[in-house]
Amino acid sequence: MDLTGTTALPIAMPPAKKGNGRTLDDLTVQATPTEKRLWHALTEVTDPEYPISVVDMGLIYGVREQDGAVNVDLTFTSMGCPCMEYIISDIRERLLQEPDVQSVDLNVVWTPAWTRQRLTEAGRAQLAQWGVGTGEAS
């Protein structure tokens, strides 16, 4: 367990698509209907540095639900991210508002590391509106 009260675990993830990024549908293709609802709820949790959801930033690696217990695998853009506790608190608070969610366990994942390829298409578009480049030619 780390200072945020979460467990840091490695996780096997499919590689991020190159190019225009992913969509929420890409991220939830194997999710149950409840898990899809939880992913959608997480689109309301924004990164404090930019008004972009943690889903569109590519910080959420996985969401699982069983009998009201939700497990979220997430990462941050860096190990020194000053917003970790804020984001974790917001995720937990938002998911606990969902019907039938009894508990939320957050697992901080550092492997694979976050890269800009994890951004969704919507995240790339929102960053571009703020004048933040994603390293790809337009």
TrEMBL record:
Q: Where is this region: Disordered?
A: 1-24
Family matches, as Gene3D superfamilies: Fe-S cluster assembly (FSCA)
InterPro entries annotated for this entry? Fe-S_Maturation_MIP18, FSCA_dom_sf, MIP18-like
Q: Which residues cross the membrane?
A: none
Read off the Pfam families from this record. FeS_assembly_P (PF01883)
Superkingdom per UniProt:
Bacteria
Where does the MIP18 family-like domain lie? 37-105
Name of the featured protein: MIP18 family-like domain-containing protein
* Lineage of source species: Bacteria, Thermotogati, Deinococcota, Deinococci, Deinococcales
